Amino acid sequence: MTAELSAVRGQVEDQRSTHTADFDEYVAVRYQQLVRMARLLTQDWALAEDLVQSALVKCWGSWGSIRNDDPTAYIRRTLMTTYFGWWRWRRSRPERLMAVDLERSMTDDYTLIENADLLDALRSLPKRMCAVVVLRYFEDLTEAQTAAALGCTVGTVKSQTHRALRRLHLELTAVEEAER
Amino acid sequence: MNVEELRERLENAAQPPHPLTPPLEDLHRRGRRRRRQRAGLLVTAVATALVIGGVQLLAAKHPEPATPAAEPFPAYLGMYRLSAQQTGAAGQTDFTPQALTGKVDELSITCTARDAEHRQVLVTSPGGVPVLVACSRFPTNPGTLGGFDAGGMAVVRKTPIRFRLVDLDYQVGEPPPAPLDDPTARLAVAVYGLP
């Protein structure tokens, strides 16, 4: 009886360590891409890392069941629900960097200066619209995959994409004209 | 800006300024803590459900006793004095006039029940004519049922009189309905007599 118990315990331990190793391997490979996507959603590196880590922690417990399907799609969906949940909870717009902060961060984040207008434009979009743009044009997902990640219909993705592109165009054109 | 340009700019804006390394240990620690919290929540939810279910089961097994007859009978109602009272179950009670205390020439009764608004009381005694009397939540002036002497309902001291709650649309002569399927429906009957 004791031998059987220890055998079962050993199997569970083996399974757990396999899951852990598998999770670690997946995260090591995908972490950077996930944070980059989150960076476009949140327009902030620290928030992006927080968002990705929160999503990964949520998936950690069920890794055994999701690793055999499509973990990326699952994590992407979790990331999106976490992202929307955050903003629903906070209700307010995230903090924006001031000129002083920009100068300070210039040394280590040149992309912030180069793409300030784009990040501002993304920030001005409603969260779902922003997510559609990021998933469609950064992650290169199809409309169906985007709909699955956001939990909405393909029709919604199409209309949101159309509106988002128009708004981005208007925002960026306005910035360009102001600079001239 | 066309779509290709947008792709390019998004790609550029998402270039990390420094290498991003996942805090694996921290993720595992937070994952374990989350699992513990969720297990705790699950246990709490199950325990709460069990407690609620148990309380409901107990309440179903031991129904709260109904108010005996909405309002207690007073010792005097007008010039009548309370001689006897009793409460039945399932909307029915049998009363034997022999139980009367003191000397009563006639049977003056008042009936109360908690849900008396939509009901009346059918009074039957073996060999007697059934009579319908009013029922109220509050004790009202007693109605005379009959006397032990000549006149009125033939009342025999040793014969029990049955009082049963019936619906308002019940007519005398129809077969009497079955007792109410409600153990809490209590009909209380009080007999008053002239002192």
From TrEMBL, chain A:
Keyword Cytoplasm: no
Matches recorded under InterPro entries: RNA_pol_sigma-70-like, RNA_pol_sigma-70_dom, RNA_pol_sigma-E_actinobac, RNA_pol_sigma70_r2, RNA_pol_sigma70_r4_t2, RNA_pol_sigma_r2, RNA_pol_sigma_r3/r4-like, WH-like_DNA-bd_sf
Keyword Transmembrane (UniProt): no
Domain RNA polymerase sigma-70 region: 31-80
Residues annotated as signal peptide: none
Keywords: DNA-binding, Sigma factor, Transcription, Transcription regulation
Domain (RNA polymerase sigma factor 70 region 4 type) ranges: 117-168
Gene Ontology MF terms in the entry: DNA binding; sigma factor activity
Record-level GO BP terms: DNA-templated transcription initiation
CDD domains found in the cross-reference section: Sigma70_r4 (cd06171)
Origin: domain of life: Bacteria
SUPFAM superfamilies, A to Z: Sigma2 domain of RNA polymerase sigma factors (SSF88946), Sigma3 and sigma4 domains of RNA polymerase sigma factors (SSF88659)
The family this protein is said to belong to: Belongs to the sigma-70 factor family. ECF subfamily.
Protein name in the entry: RNA polymerase sigma-70 factor (Sigma-E family)
The organism's taxonomic lineage, starting at the top: Bacteria, Bacillati, Actinomycetota, Actinomycetes, Propionibacteriales
From TrEMBL, chain B:
Stretch list, region Disordered: 1-35
Domain of life: Bacteria
Protein name: Uncharacterized protein
Biased composition (Basic and acidic residues): 1-11
Transmembrane segments: 39-59
Organism name: Kribbella kalugense
Keywords, in A-Z order: Membrane, Transmembrane, Transmembrane helix
